[in-house]
Design brief:
Blueprint (H helix, E strand, L loop, with lengths): L8 H7 L25 H8 L15 H14 L3 E5 L2 H12 L5 E5 L4 H10 L6 E5 L4 H7 L4 E7 L11 H10 L3 E5 L4 H4 L2 H4 L3 E5 L13 E5 L1 H14 L5 H11 L2 H20 L4 E5 L9 H7 L6 E6 L2 H11 L4 E2 L9 E3 L11 H6 L6 E5 L5 H13 L5
Helix pairs in contact: 1-3, 3-11, 4-10, 12-16, 14-16
The chain binds ligand LCS.
Ligand LCS binds next to helix 4 and helix 5.
């Protein structure tokens, strides 16, 4: 696309990365192949010694389908380079492989997805990497947690599952002054509502399984950021695997074409549900960045252009009441994952964050009674009606 940078977000969702198609195919083709054929031994040798061209699909950039997807997401995140992966976890694993080595320190947010917590707390220390967890909603605590050997600061904002918000701009300055890089997991906000690179982050990682794919039918991950860092991630991507499937790359490319439309509706429905729950007598507390009661509402307002589709809440009566509610919901499905067109509910303490010790969880607000909702793009009234009938059942049958 000509002068792509000057085009609006929606136009880039639709057009970026598209159109490099031989034979004039309107939709980018799925290059369902595992390897590429060379015209000559010389061309092959050049490709394998760092030259351009496609080689073997595990070797970035994979196929032209992957390249189209990466070009589109780079345009949306506003980053110069990117890499696709088989899952968000594979992207995170490549990030830590590329940026940390024995003796280095990772400073990470305490509220993060349970899988990420597991990678950081149980796998990295096996390789001699020090890891510490800090409340990144307080930049002073980030500053206090930095060490001489800190090479990477990692955070999610909004964070899974409490939707805690961290000040990306302020933390990037603190990290950079200490010689560390800042990585931000942008899965909840998506580039539609938040662009961490423009706020000062060095790299963005995202689970494409969520809003990027958008329909709950794939696993994928992506990293976008400064060229040097993304280049360093190519080696772990090649050698540890974690390659995005070609069909998944195509589904992500297609999913992104409607990201702007879906995110608007997710956020509209989520705000309605958050307000409804906050006013409901059976609900103790609602976490949603768009509510004035959210402790980092002002930071969210500063760095996000919308509040997203994720919220969590506690019902009166704790875990038992929460279970009764989830068992009585009819429209919303009880499932992990998020960012699908349909509404999903889950119980972080026993599902997505079960890997965290109870005392660790509770300290950061992931209580036994917390219920997380990924608000879908159905009719808002139908979502509200489902939660209304479910909450009615908490005390009774
Ligand atoms: N980052 C965040 C914020 C996530 O929520 C997840 C997965 C990941 C990274 C990892 O991505 P994946 O490898 O699954 O593509 N979150 C999940 C969740 O909340 N329920 O199921 C998975």
């Amino acid at each position: 696309m000509e002068s792509e940078k000057e085009k609006g977000f929606a136009t880039r969702c639709v057009h970026a990365g598209e159109g490099h198609n031989p034979f004039g195919a309107h939709a980018t083709p799925i290059y369902q192949t595992s390897t590429f054929v060379f015209d000559s031994a010389e061309q092959a040798a050049a490709a394998f010694s760092g030259g351009p061209g496609y080689r073997y699909v595990r070797s970035p950039p994979g196929t032209p389908t992957h390249a189209a997807f990466v070009e589109k997401i780079c345009s949306l995140e506003g980053g110069p380079a990117g890499l696709s992966f088989s899952s968000g976890m594979a992207a995170e694993a490549a990030l830590v492989f590329a940026t940390l080595q024995k003796g280095d320190h990772l400073l990470t947010a305490d509220v993060i997805y349970g899988g990420t917590y597991g990678l950081f707390s149980s796998l990295l220390p096996k390789f001699g990497i020090e890891v510490s967890f800090v409340d990144t909603t307080d930049p002073e605590k980030v500053e206090g947690g930095l060490q001489e050997n800190t090479r990477l600061v990692f955070l999610e904002s909004p964070a899974n599952p409490t939707v805690a918000v961290s000040d990306i701009g302020e933390i990037s300055q603190i990290a950079h002054e200490a010689g560390a890089r800042l990585a931000v997991d942008n899965t909840f906000a998506t580039p539609y509502f938040q662009r961490p690179l423009a706020l000062g982050a060095d790299v963005v990682v995202e689970s494409c399984t969520k809003y990027i794919g958008g329909h709950g039918d794939l696993l994928g991950g992506v990293a976008v950021g400064e060229k040097e860092l993304i280049s360093a991630m190519k080696r772990p991507a090649l050698l540890a695997g974690g390659t995005m499937g070609t069909h998944e790359a195509w589904l992500c490319l297609r999913g992104l074409k409607t990201l702007h439309l879906r995110m608007e509706r997710h956020a509209e429905n989520a705000l309605r549900l958050a307000r409804f729950l906050e006013a409901h007598p059976a609900v103790e507390k609602v976490n949603y960045p768009g509510l004035c009661s959210h402790p980092q509402h002002a930071v969210a307002k500063k760095q996000m252009s919308g509040w997203g589709g994720m919220l969590s809440f506690e019902v009166l009566g704790g875990v038992e009441a929460g279970r009764r509610l989830m068992n009585h919901l009819k429209l919303a499905s009880l499932a992990v994952s998020l960012g699908c067109v349909d509404t999903l509910v889950e119980h972080p303490a026993s599902m997505t964050h079960a890997v965290m010790p109870k005392e660790v969880r509770e300290k950061m607000g992931i209580t036994d009674g917390l219920v997380r909702v990924s608000v879908g793009i159905e009719d808002g009234e139908d979502i509200l009606a489902d939660f209304a009938q479910g909450l009615d059942k908490i005390g009774g049958n």
